[in-house]
Amino acid sequence: MFEMGSQSDAVLVRRILAGQVDLYQVLVERYRAEFGRYATAMLGGDVDDAADALQEAFIRAYRSLASCREPEKFKAWLFRIVSNQCHNARRSRRDHVPLDRIEDPPDDSTQRQLEANEIGRTIQTALDDLTAEQREAFVLKHIEGYSYADMSTLLEVGEDALKMRVHRARDELQRRLEGLQ
Amino acid sequence: MREEQRLSPEAHSYLDGESAGGIGPEDRGAAQRFEQAIQAYASSLKRPDAAVDRAVMAAVRADARHARRQSVWRWLVSPHLFNVRPALVAAAAVALIVFGRVLIDVPGPGDRSPGAEAAAQTTILVRFELRAPDAHRVTLAGSFNEWSPDGVELARNAATGLWTATVPLKPGEHEYLFIIDGSQWIPDPNAHAQVDDGFGQANSVIVVGPRGVVRS
Question: For the whole prediction, is pTM greater than 0.90?
């Protein structure tokens, strides 16, 4: 018996298309972990909204799996679906971002906790005010820790353009963070 | 925006991981404070939990059941053309007679008669062939080996470009595909039946009777 978790995306996609639908769970687990914080950051820090968006994206991806012409690029293909779903979810959210959902950081000092919460809220608000492209690039770079090369593969956008988006996002966040002092 | 509220180009380079030596202490401090604030924020974000997986897989399995029912129904109600060789018809007739006898003697759940056990243990050696002169590796995946892409490796005849493997199969209907060079999944061009897998692609079908291949 071989380890399913070590199977490449392409092999899993082909086996799922050949009828082994239960293997889809391996891909769901793999990319829920990989894109989970991205979805949460893109949706105002709301993990419940992120769960709904990911769930919808995974189901949509399964239903159109046969249209994934290059299973070797499944990750980028799936990311486009997740990204679109997050953008749609943002548009459909009626209320403002529930900032109180941002988790309290582990800290034994009440004063430092308050400061950290304030910084977290400031960052989240600044992220929400960025353009969609800047927000996406910043989250991938600084929240998910992608390199520019990996971001370029995932988004099919040149590295220079991505750097520009990240730099502008940083400047805006820095401006907000400086305003706290 | 006031200029001092921007990060300097050196600080951006530092945050991009591009420079460590040429940056001054002030820019380095600004970049590090920025990095710490973002890291603290990132660590406060939660990932959705495994409830997502369960909900997705429930929907996926429901879809698959529905697709399977649709697929069987479409196959039953649509016309099919088969090329039939007389010798195969004769072999099929013999196999059907034998298979019919097996069906008549269908064992019950508790039936441990020697005939029932022998039928259950019967395997038929089936030879699979694919002409692929340009391939470097050909394997066979199917319902008989849990669709493992590395389960059965075909041997190549360099002179003819024909790849072959002989596989022991139990009587019944089996679906399969060839895999060329580990990535290209193709149906058997010589199979007499292909079935829709429910996702817009075709699997080849082979039917094995207790005395040999009934249809391939």
Answer: no
